[in-house]
Design the sequence.
């Protein structure tokens, strides 16, 4: 029966070699098991994760093709389901101890050499580490750290910013309303003592009162604004409200000429921080005072691009907005070729436009890397550049390096939810504790249109860790968002199956 199990697993993976996205979830479905049951069986039998089992079947097939077929290394990488030849080379070398090209020349690795991924470690070490993790999990569970509710009561200093209203008659300047909102959020996000919700988190509740929004997205303060432009002058009226009782903390009135608009978001961020009694370090003051470009025309095109990019983030089907954003970012660089944030804007556009369509093309992420490196050359402290670099490294299999990039982004911008989400993805198949911790960081900062997917990930992470009740709560939150009752009952069925396994 054990041999039949191994044979069936291997044959299913081989039948899906061409599909680079065939992973643990898909294998579990085809085996007729829950993800956690399959993970446990493979772990017990081979001391491997599901992902590692799949990867090694791919690599064994690659070795066979290298020795018997007349294909290039890149062609074989794609045939066995690796979207990146670079990542294929890295995995192949780690597993067999030699580069794929050496195998093709007949210079095989020594047969008595154990692949790195199969090396045994003392059982005592595994038991010690496992015991510590279990104790940590139980402690955090009993103390409510990983509750999937609305993350407890709102953090004392937490804020969301509504999209600003445009009141001017010059509709060519209407884009400035959302552009200024995004810039203010960007500046506030760099303050470590203030939790700042992502801009898209407010969008589902745009017509609700501040009190309702505060409860829905778990924040204590809302900043709203009305922007008026007349000729070359801008007037921005902001209102800071306590969401508990909708009392007005402060009303601000910022008047400036359009040519001085670049410095305004930093000034506003400091004013809001002062009203909320948020202490700014010297580094934080320096960062939010930093001028991204001295060219007003470049800044204007960048702001237009950001506004269109925001339209895409609010509705991912709006691909036209993404194309328009790309054009504006390029225009900004025509006027200032040193504008680092315009390069990261383009890197994000390229990733979003091409990730799925060009995934199997050689070096499809090279443009992202080039643009990120350009951004770093002009601004080595740009958090969004570190996030994009982390995405690039993770896609190419450099997981430790990707983690370091995400941590750098968080050090500069502690409210960068994409960095926490990237870290959750890094740990997803290997470390349930870190996955859950980072997903909850995401939930504390993000309530946008990808929220259902986050709860889905949290469900499987809790289930694999053996926290059935928390898994069920995550599934419940997910069905509230997407209304998919079929998937909900599938999740509940998996939960009950696992509950019975743990009981028995």
Sequence:
């Amino acid at each position: 029966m054990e041999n039949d199990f191994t044979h069936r697993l291997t044959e299913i993976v081989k039948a899906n070699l061409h599909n680079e996205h065939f992973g643990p979830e898909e294998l579990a479905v085809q085996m007729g098991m829950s993800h956690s049951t399959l993970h446990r069986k493979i772990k017990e039998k081979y001391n491997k994760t599901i992902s590692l089992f799949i990867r090694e079947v791919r690599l064994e097939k690659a070795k066979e093709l290298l020795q018997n077929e007349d294909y290039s290394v890149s062609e074989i990488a794609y045939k066995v389901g690796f979207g990146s030849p670079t990542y294929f080379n890295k995995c192949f070398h780690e597993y067999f101890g030699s580069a794929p090209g050496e195998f093709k020349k007949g210079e095989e690795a020594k047969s008595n050499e154990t692949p790195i991924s199969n090396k045994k470690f003392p059982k005592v070490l595994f038991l010690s580490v496992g015991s510590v993790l279990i104790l940590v999990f139980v402690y955090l569970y009993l103390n409510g750290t990983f509750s999937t509710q609305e993350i407890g009561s709102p953090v004392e200093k937490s804020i969301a910013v509504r999209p600003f209203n445009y009141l001017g008659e010059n509709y060519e300047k209407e884009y400035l309303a959302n552009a200024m909102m995004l810039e203010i959020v960007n500046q506030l996000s760099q303050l470590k003592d203030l939790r700042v919700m992502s801009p898209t988190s407010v969008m589902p509740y745009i017509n609700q009162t501040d009190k309702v929004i505060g409860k829905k997205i778990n924040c204590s303060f809302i900043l709203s604004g009305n922007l008026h432009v007349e000729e070359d002058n801008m007037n921005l009226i902001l209102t800071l409200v306590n969401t508990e009782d909708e009392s007005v903390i402060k009303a601000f009135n910022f008047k400036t000429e359009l040519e001085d608009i670049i410095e305004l978001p930093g000034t506003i961020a400091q004013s809001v921080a002062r009203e909320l009694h948020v202490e700014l370090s010297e580094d934080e003051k320096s960062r939010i005072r930093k001028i991204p470009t001295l060219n007003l025309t470049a800044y204007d095109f960048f702001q237009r691009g950001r506004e269109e990019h925001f339209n895409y983030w609010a509705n991912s089907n709006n691909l036209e907005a993404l194309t328009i954003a790309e054009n504006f970012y390029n225009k900004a660089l025509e006027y200032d070729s040193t504008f680092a944030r315009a390069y990261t804007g383009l890197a994000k556009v390229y990733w979003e436009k091409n990730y799925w369509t060009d995934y199997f093309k050689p070096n499809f992420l090279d443009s992202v890397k080039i643009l990120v490196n350009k951004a770093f050359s002009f601004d080595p402290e740009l958090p969004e550049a570190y996030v994009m670099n982390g995405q690039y490294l993770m896609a190419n299999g450099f997981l430790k390096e990707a983690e370091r990039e995400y941590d750098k982004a968080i050090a500069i911008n502690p409210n960068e939810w994409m960095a926490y989400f990237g870290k959750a993805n890094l740990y997803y198949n290997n470390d349930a504790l870190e996955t859950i911790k980072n997903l909850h960081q995401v939930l504390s900062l993000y309530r946008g249109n990808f929220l259902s997917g986050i709860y889905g990930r949290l469900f499987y992470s809790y289930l694999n860790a053996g926290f059935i009740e928390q898994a069920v709560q995550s599934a419940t939150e997910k069905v509230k968002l997407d209304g998919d009752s079929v998937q909900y009952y599938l999740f509940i069925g998996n939960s009950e199956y696992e509950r019975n396994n743990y009981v028995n």
Summary: Confidence is low (pLDDT under 50) at residues 106-153. Strands lie at 158-161, 165-166, 195-196, 221-230, 233-242, 247-257.
